[in-house]
Design brief:
Distance between the termini: 54 Å
Strand order of the largest sheet: 1-2-3-4-5-6-7-8
CATH architecture of one domain: Alpha-Beta Barrel
Order of helices and strands: HEHEHEHEHHHEHHEHHEHEH
Largest sheet: 8 strands, parallel, barrel
Number of strands: 8
CATH class of one domain: Alpha Beta
Radius of gyration: 18 Å
CATH topology of one domain: TIM Barrel
Number of helices: 13
Length: 252
Amino acid sequence: MRNPLRQRLDSGSVCAGILTAMPSVTMAQTLSRMGFDWMFIDMEHGPIDIESCHHMIAATAGTECAPVVRVMEPRISYTKPVLDSGAMGLVFPMINTREAAEDAVRAVRYPPEGERGWGPFYAPMRWGNGDAMEYYRASGDIVIIALIEHAEAVANIQEILEVPGIDVFLIAPMDLAASMGHVGNRDHPDVQASISVAEDAIRTAGRKMGGLCLSAEEGNEKIARGYNVVLMGFDLLLLQIGAQSMLDGLKR
């Protein structure tokens, strides 16, 4: 059994992802076959319930695109059904303290490192051959992504970075901007300064860093700054761009 996202991270390769908040199997099938390394299934801001999430995870089968799910918070009641559906990674919002980061790790790992209960009936089929014990041995490869998206998180970044088990620290500029009183303005000088503080800390600690990119150009700029994981937009944005490109220049 293997987690292609874990393999790419461990090899030092850049991992490009896409977010989907639509509860759509067709969307999941399409995006997972477009060349992305991971698909960010958003249960925090999208109307995706656990049944839809399960179906979307299954829809990525047969691809090298790892299904990664954002849950509401680091609680076992949120993580357990998602993991048992076969998620290969979890994204945790608002990791603002060391304690929250520790809670995230515990909510993903089996004992003794964590609190996850036994019940991998569907996950092994997405990961490989359906063998529960083989999945159990491979489950340490589940990728844990902590979102650094609040001024408090930046203030506590050194303590957060000390927590073992977090694989990627993804800087989310829009929520960070909102927490600083600059809603919708990720380019505000104060927000950019805060992002730089987080970047410097993550790089110095030798940890994996992720961020939002809305173009290949922005992605390349971030990769040059040491980003290992790039989130290349979201489903609705792709639809808007595609629809506009079909209408631009149309003589009607």
